[in-house]
Amino acid sequence: MESNQSTTGVQPEPPEWEPLPGAVRDGQSVTREWQSLQPLIDGVVVKEVRNVTKDNGMLTEIWRKDWDLDGLPVGQVFQNVLLARTISAWHVHRWTTDRIFVNHGLLKLVVYDGRPESATHGMFNEFRIGSVRPALVVVPPGVWHRVENLESTPGALLNLVDRAYDYEHPDHWRLASDTDRIPYRAWRARGPTLPPSDAV
Fold first, then answer.
1. What is the pLDDT, as a whole number, of residue 189?
2. What domain range includes position 185?
3. Which of 144, 131, 137, 130 is nearest to 159 (CA)?
4. According to the model, what pLDDT value does residue 10 have?
């Protein structure tokens, strides 16, 4: 039987090979330390945390004041549960800053910069976060966002907002998850590694 390994233990050069026509090679998306290279929307902050395994389970930090992510207080904390394979509406706040932490399951958070005056206007970010790779994502006012449950079981997130919910005058504006006013489908069709417009 022939061996593909040389007698020196060094792998030989692979044979000449070409992909099928139209194939596009992936670009680098993470560093060797598995840190994302995704450029972030202005004001969006991502704080990855590590699960601490213990004899009786696992501990995960969610928020610390000394992380100093945005300099704002915590005005309220609430939990939102998404049923299996569901997608929330797009929503945005005029004044409120969200701090989103997925505490159960695996969710995809998509954010879109709809602020005309922003240096990253028209830009998207996608974050797949959850129990296996926890992170706290800060979403500033004016940045649209939606959440999708990627799993076949319910998922949950915590939101540590800087302003408590105003029952009489909610700081919430919504668009349907499939709206054409946010060009997410077109951006996905081009490939998430490409900028959505000349603005970025």
1. 87
2. 45-62+75-165+172-190
3. 137
4. 72
